[in-house]
Specification:
four-stranded antiparallel β-sheet, 247 residues, 26% strand, alpha/beta, 7 helices, 30% helix, globular, six-stranded mixed β-sheet
Length: 247
């Protein structure tokens, strides 16, 4: 058999640190057709937090180490006066993709579920640099998907929730109680951006990431639970105010 046919496709996973990314990685590893070579995450440069999710860079690094995959970080210029524009974002991403392509990576996987316009946007940008997208959990029923997440033994906290969910949801664990308590009209997986999460344990992990929930802050109509490394001291807490603006 041609050795080239035995080589797994090399993939970088667009990684938010949350539930859907974790499920996408689990599916890629389970199917055996692909080699996930790295995680790709965008970070607000000034605030050192994952874009949109508000999770500290330190926790992101611990998470990647616990999973056992290299972390490829994209730093987005952003501050309270000037959020990162879409044009700047696309330029940063394009440069990263070209670098990855030069290393023999031609596929980028995403944890999107059913937002067709978002998928088409990603595919257009990938096509510009001669790459293609993978969507391992595409069109999965979101109720079934979040139940699978829990059944598989994944553990996560909500790091950011929309104002319509309310402050009490920020920092909650993803479990059967959370799914039961979600108000009517909220997608069980938060696919419309109703909530974002940080996964700290589960079948893709070599060991658990120790994390604890700090205080909550509101910014741009969203509530952020400041998640702290398990060994963080109280002196770390004031940084909760450094939540990046929404791009």
């Amino acid at each position: 058999m041609d050795k080239r046919l035995q080589t797994k496709g090399r993939v970088v996973l667009s990684w938010s640190g949350g539930k859907d990314s974790a499920l996408a990685l689990h599916e890629l590893q389970k199917c055996g057709r692909y080699e996930v070579v790295a995680l790709l995450t965008s970070i607000a440069q000034e605030y050192r937090r994952i874009s949109h999710h508000g999770v500290r860079e330190d926790l992101l690094e611990r998470q990647a180490k616990a999973i056992g995959l290299p972390l490829y970080k994209l730093y987005l210029p952003s501050n309270s006066q000037q959020p990162c524009t879409n044009e700047v974002y696309e330029g940063v991403v394009e440069q990263a993709l070209l670098e990855l392509k030069s290393q023999g990576v031609f596929m980028v996987a995403h944890g999107d579920i059913f937002l067709q316009d978002l998928r088409e946007y990603r595919e257009r940008n990938l096509a510009k640099v001669g790459m293609r997208g993978l969507f391992p959990i595409w069109r999965r029923d979101t109720t079934e998907l979040v139940q699978t997440f829990i059944t598989l033994g994944f553990k996560a906290y909500l790091s950011c929730v929309e104002g319509k969910l309310g402050e009490s949801f920020a920092g909650r664990a993803i479990d059967v109680d959370l799914i039961r308590d979600l108000p009517e009209g909220i997608d069980p997986c938060g696919e419309y951006g109703e909530y974002h999460s940080f996964v700290y344990d589960g079948p893709i992990f070599r060991h658990r990431v120790e994390v604890k929930v700090g205080q909550t802050v509101m910014r741009d109509g969203r509530f952020y639970a400041d998640l702290l490394p398990g060994d963080a001291s109280e002196a770390t807490r004031p940084e909760v105010l450094k939540i990046p603006p929404i791009r």
